[in-house]
Amino acid sequence: MEYIHKCKPFLHQDVAFKRFEYAPFFAIFADMGTGKTKMVIDQAGVRYLRGEIDTLLVISLNLVGSQNWISELEAHMSPGITYKAAYYMSGPRVAHKERVAAVCNATGVFRIMVVHVDALSHESGISFCEDFIAKHKAMVIVDESQTIKNPTSRRTKHVTSLGKEKAVVAKAITTGTPLDKGWEDLYAQFRFLNPAIIGCRTFAAFRALYCQMGGFEGRQIVGHINLPELKAKLEPHTFSVRSEDCQDLPEQMFMERKIELTPEQKKLYDALRNEFFAELDSGEILEADIAMTRLTRLRQVTSGFLPNDDGTFQHIPSNRPQEVLDILEEAGGKKVIIWCLYKESLRILHETFRKAGIGVAHFHGLVAPEKRATELARFKEHADCQGLLSSTAVGGACITVNEAKVQIFYENGFSYLQRAQALKRNHRHGQTERVAYYDIIAKGTMDTKVINMLKKKESVAIDVRSVGALRGLLETI
Questions:
Q1: For the residues of 205-267, what is the DSSP string, one character each?
Q2: pLDDT tens for residues 62-92?
Q3: For 11-245, CATH number?
Q4: Which fold, 252-261+318-474?
Q5: Per the confidence metrics, is the pTM higher than 0.90?
Q6: How many CB atoms lie under 10 A from the CB of residue 77?
Q7: Quick one: which of 428, 404, 432 has its CA closest to 13?
Q8: Could you tell me if 87 and 66 are in contact, meaning their C-beta atoms sit under 8 angstroms apart?
């Protein structure tokens, strides 16, 4: 039976489909925005049509990621397949329990359940997954498989054990960030697929064969050895693609919007920075948490607030909110995602939009998890909702928002990974327009150095024990 793609695949997706169409296990390492979810949905679909599987268990990044998978199935599952799908959550409402039960008890259709990886840290989640696949022919997909890179963690062990169940006849892992710390991150991910791929029964054996040890008592991994051999073992089972190699994806435009500190901000910023310099020059060793607190306070000043001892906040006049309004006006009604680093910034912008009469939805830590999907749908579907207020920590890795044609980084954190994930939220399969990204940068502050590092695809590594490193970050460009 010929497999019918619901959405025409890009060239790289078609290559991956044909390469792994009959593979019992495989890894897809694809940049965000290249459509790795579609790739594994098609792989599951073709196996169902051939009668090889009747059940799909997806292990997702988090609850929001689980909810997003349901939408991705609707967008990409072959029209020739009848399926029932739901996502698992502990202690759900009665209506959700009924949806989950309907999938568990379904017959004659493709059964699909999405479970967030943290559920596999608990006996209830483990038992649910085991019961769901028992007496069936199942495929298990670990989405964002970097979550099982730690070979000693409880959830990694449980996911690996689940993959060994007799009912599992096919397995896949997907991620855009397979290597965070180093090649050792791959051991547990490929052990889930098949221990024979690498051939090391334990992580200690893997480390002895492929890692160079050093540091304190020789217990730290300081480098890697025999990499050609390791790569040769992994290559037959791995498909890797970078977004820059996909010529049919839309273009991206990056722009900086530089703002001046208000007099009130500058006075506070300079005072705090000078106090920090004095502490650094005193010769006394600053505790790491104190140094990070000093840096955080400086960044909060540039965002227009400072926390008080009683948990309230002192608001400081700032040009950032107006800059956001200016960009939204220039966007001409296009939908815009605004990323914030701090919860107080989210509150400030909420009030800014309310006063300006601009419709905005919320997808961040101040919104209850069960309400976020509704907020996201409101942003996507309502023409009078132009903005989506979010944080890279909550929305940066798990949502698809191709309806947005503009992103604004109200603030940037120190992590390149979080920024890279956020950049791809609307630069994905299905996007038909050029995407614009704006970074708001306060002149004369550490903002400039932070963004320069991030644009080099580097996280801002801060050695809080180094006076020189701290001074370098604080010195004005």
A1: HHHHHHEEEESGGG-EEEEE--HHHHHHHHGGGEEEE-GGG-TTSPPEEEEEEEEPPPHHHHH
A2: 776 787 788 889 989 999 899 999 999 876 6
A3: 3.40.50.10810
A4: Rossmann fold (3.40.50)
A5: no
A6: 22
A7: 428
A8: yes
